[in-house]
Amino acid sequence: MRLKVIQKILGMLLSIFSLALLPPLLIAHWTHDGAGTAFAIAIVVILFAGLLLWVPVRQVEGEMKVRDGFIVVVLFWVILGTSGSIPFMLVDGLEMSLPDAIFESLSGLTTTGATVIVGIDYLPPSILFYRQLLQWLGGMGIIVLAVAILPILGIGGMQLYRAETPGPMKNAKLTPRITETAKALWYIYVGLTVACATAYFFSGMDLFDAVSHSFSTVAIGGFSTHDLSLGYFDNPLIEATAVVFMFIAGINFSLHFLSLRHRNAKPYFFDSEFRMYAAVTVGVCLICSTGLSLTLYQDDWAEAFRLGIFQAVSIGTTTGFTTAGFQAWPGFLPVLLLFASFVGACAGSTGGGIKVIRFLLLYKQGRREIQRLIHPNAVITIKMGGRPVNDRIVDAVWGFFATYVTVFAALLLAVMAMGLDQVTAFSAVAACLNNLGPGLGEVSAHYGALSGSVKLILSFAMILGRLEIFTLLVLLAPSFWRT
């Protein structure tokens, strides 16, 4: 384990993150919203902390090992989440405690979208932009961005990429060099953001809202500049734009890359995960829309389909935008949406949840076991895209699923022990672990009423979900620390 290399990387990444606070600082000075001092102090503190770590070991050279990558990723998300809370605590009027500020910061960076703030419409513009920027940076992963920078420092980044990038296919590279892979992902990410902001602007948003919401849409984050989320605009064209870009952002970004490189859409349609992702999304949209048209909107089926489709895509991709109080919908619809967030988006996307490809493999494995009961001596191979899947990958998916359920149960019991009722506890843990945001019960609107200890537990759940559990839990294994 190369502790000095880890220290050097953490110091450099913290220093780089301090620069991300410059845009909100400029907005604060431009709008005179009173938050400039808070951002200036945060920049100085974070930059100083980064340089304090980096300067003593700046001459250290060496390649990271896989274990070093896991440590850097976990420490960086924890430290960054804590550092990102500084502006929230310093801005006059917010009066946020440390647990509240950490919760809000991590909710942004992990693209969860849960908030403890009431009265978002009245926040200073710089704070509004900062919340959206946190989600945009966390969407593709600040670590992946840093992968393109680390070679300049003489340090390879493949270990960081493997540790941070989600999904069972994480070792696949789009290009021969990991630096070029990171750059390719970010070019697509930035391109989608620009396209989304442009579409929002021409759909009726002002420039500030268009840019801000494009950050959280492409990041599948869900933060908004208004308490009513996208429902504030009451604009079908804006909602349609959001649905399109939420769906696109939920697709594996490698498919976007391949489609652009080959200049056709075949990579999407030949990908079994994408086909299942589209089928699940369409299915949930139809169920919600039909359910609403038969209950709340019997005389207005168009409104039922408008609301049903938007909420199904938003919750299913774990974005978390809302245009209606889906928590009060009749029957099983709110629970269906919450369960859809467990499936989540595709691996290699900015979405949360267990990921579609894992559920697809679980389905195929279940079907294989049924066939084995009928034909005990048959050799049955699981295939994806016409190619056999190594049983090691299937075993890993089963292990991940079992661990996910176990962690969920443990967190659920923990927050219930803190006094939360069953509905609130279940939905809060699900929303944070799946990086979704909105929940049911007491957390249907915001998380501000929860105790500080519950917020810290849910903050931990956000990191677990963003790093897909194993990246964090591997640090708890005694064998990890043996030399």
Walk me through the structure:
With about 475 residues, the protein is mostly helical. The longest helix has 27 residues, at about 390-415. The protein has a two-stranded antiparallel sheet with strand order 1-2. The protein has helices spanning about 5-20, 20-30, 35-55, 65-85, 85-90, 100-110, 125-140, 140-145, 160-165, 180-205, 205-220, 235-250, 255-260, 265-270, 270-295, 300-315, 335-345, 355-375, 390-415, 420-435, 450-465, 470-475; strands at about 385, 385-390. The chain is globular. A hairpin with a 2-residue loop joins strand 1 and strand 2. Helix 2 (about 20-30) runs antiparallel to helix 7 and helix 10 crosses helix 11 (about 205-220). The mean pLDDT is about 90.
What's the short version?
The chain has helices spanning 3-19, 22-31, 36-54, 66-83, 86-90, 98-109, 125-140, 142-147, 158-164, 178-203, 207-218, 236-249, 253-262, 266-269, 272-294, 301-316, 333-343, 356-374, 391-417, 422-433, 452-466, 470-473; strands at residues 383-384, 387-388. With 483 residues, the chain is mostly helical.
Keywords:
483 residues, mainly alpha, two-stranded antiparallel ribbon, 22 helices
Topology as a string of helices (H) and strands (E): HHHHHHHHHHHHHHHHHHEEHHHH
Q: Taking Cα atoms only, what radius of gyration do you get, to the nearest Å?
A: 22 Å
Strand percent estimate:
under 5%
Helix content: 55-70%
Strand order of the largest sheet: 1-2
What structural class do the secondary elements suggest? mainly alpha
Largest sheet: 2 strands, antiparallel
The tally of strands reads 2
- Report, as a whole number of angstroms, the end-to-end distance: 8 Å
- Unreliable spans are none
**Bulk shape:** globular
Mean pLDDT: 89
Count of helical segments?
Answer: 22
